Amino acid sequence: MEQELFNPQSSSVSSSRILYTPSTFARTSLFHLQEVGSLQAIHPHTSTRTDLVSFLCFVVLSGEGELSYEGQNYQLKSGDCVFIDCRKAYSHSTSDNLWSLQWCHFYAPSLPAVYEKYKERGGDRYSIHRIISHLQI
Question: Residue 72: which H helix or E strand, with range?
């Protein structure tokens, strides 16, 4: 099923993505984009990955699902945004309330250290709804 997610004719998702292949210099020296895309689930599905030299940021545009990462399960809903290190195993799955996502994979040689600092400072998945409610007085 995993390969099915990348097939535009998939019965589980409708997706669009753009892949970017950086130069050797960019790959070894700079922050660089690897892939961007969007996905609309057509049927419930799970996507599982591990050992990708990449970081992932995705936002749930609509619907609901779950992220499993570092021994934790996170219930996600519209407005939730996720930032994870894809070198570690993770999976995400849509619920029966089928979700729509937009994502971006990126990397930089310095990003693992940046991500560790993010976690040290309490970094976790963030809900746009939660951030907005904290800004309102």
Answer: strand 72-77
Q: In the chain, what's the furthest Cα-to-Cα distance?
A: 48
Q: pLDDT for 42-97, tens place per residue?
A: 999 899 999 999 999 999 999 999 999 989 899 999 989 899 999 999 999 999 99
Q: What b-and-e string marks burial along 42-78, b requiring 16 or more CB atoms within 10 Å of the CB? A: eeebebebeebebbbebbbeebbbebebeeeeeebeb
> What's the one-letter identity of residue 69?
Y
Place of tokens 């589980």: 12
| DSSP code string of 10-44 | -SSEEEEEEE----HHHHHHS-EEEEEEEEEESS-
Q: If you classify domain 3-135 with CATH, what class do you get? A: mainly beta
Question: What predicted TM-score, i.e. pTM, was given to this entire model?
Answer: 0.82
Cβ proximity of 91 and 50 under 8 Å: no
